[in-house]
Amino acid sequence: MFSADLAIPALLVAVLAYLAGSVSAAILVCRSMGLPDPRQTGSGNPGATNVLRLGGKVPAAMTLLGDGLKGFIPVLLTALFTQHPPTIALAALAAFLGHLYPVFFGFNGGKGVATALGALIGIDLSVGALALLTWLAVSLAFRRSSLAALVTFALVPLYLLFDDQQAYALGFVFIGAFLFYTHRSNIQRLIAGTEPTIGNK
């Protein structure tokens, strides 16, 4: 629970982290490089995977980096000012929600994997590395990026619990639930066996 003296700072953290998360790397990268709006082309998702389809590896890498940083930086800055785990977890959740529902772009955001991973790395580098290894292992085994993301963030709360970080584990339970929601169409295709493999347009 937040104590009374942390209520206002926590609210400020949530607002600033949400605004940071609302900056859409995919849209800004596509605009700066003369690419189509990712919300209106390809899968319609403003994320690195769709940007890869639209413009190739360089703009996709820029998008991935931007999405990761807007999860990482709010968490890191919050941790510089407070060692209160629930407040830091709130920064991660708010930045993630900003990516999903960006106020600057009509609340039409991406699916949140890179931003969630960036926030996790900001919280605990070792757990973030373990999550990245999990994603790589599942993606190499099954060649489905969406499946790798779902498996990874289903396991992240357990990784955090094993590391005795209950407040962060709870935060990533909420993040994982939203990730499953944003991937609901992917889940349907995975069940039907029609989800594209990595590298398949």
List the total number of helices: 10
First CA to last CA: what distance? 46 Å
Q: What is the typical, i.e. mean, pLDDT? A: 91
**What is the molecular shape?**
globular
Instruction: Show unreliable segments.
Output: none
| Residue fraction in strands | under 5%
Total domain count: 1
What fraction, in percent, of the residue positions are helical?
over 70%
Q: Taking Cα atoms only, what radius of gyration do you get, to the nearest Å?
A: 16 Å
Order of helices and strands: HHHHHHHHHH
Short description:
The chain has about 200 residues and is mostly helical.
Describe the overall structure.
This protein is an all-alpha fold. The protein has one domain. It is 74% helix and 0% strand. The protein has ten helices and no strands. It has helices spanning 4-21, 25-32, 48-55, 57-81, 85-100, 113-123, 125-142, 145-162, 166-182, 184-192. The termini are far apart. The mean pLDDT is 91.
Layout of helices and strands:
Blueprint: H1 4-21, H2 25-32, H3 48-55, H4 57-81, H5 85-100, H6 113-123, H7 125-142, H8 145-162, H9 166-182, H10 184-192
Question: What are its keywords?
Answer:
201 residues, mainly alpha, 10 helices
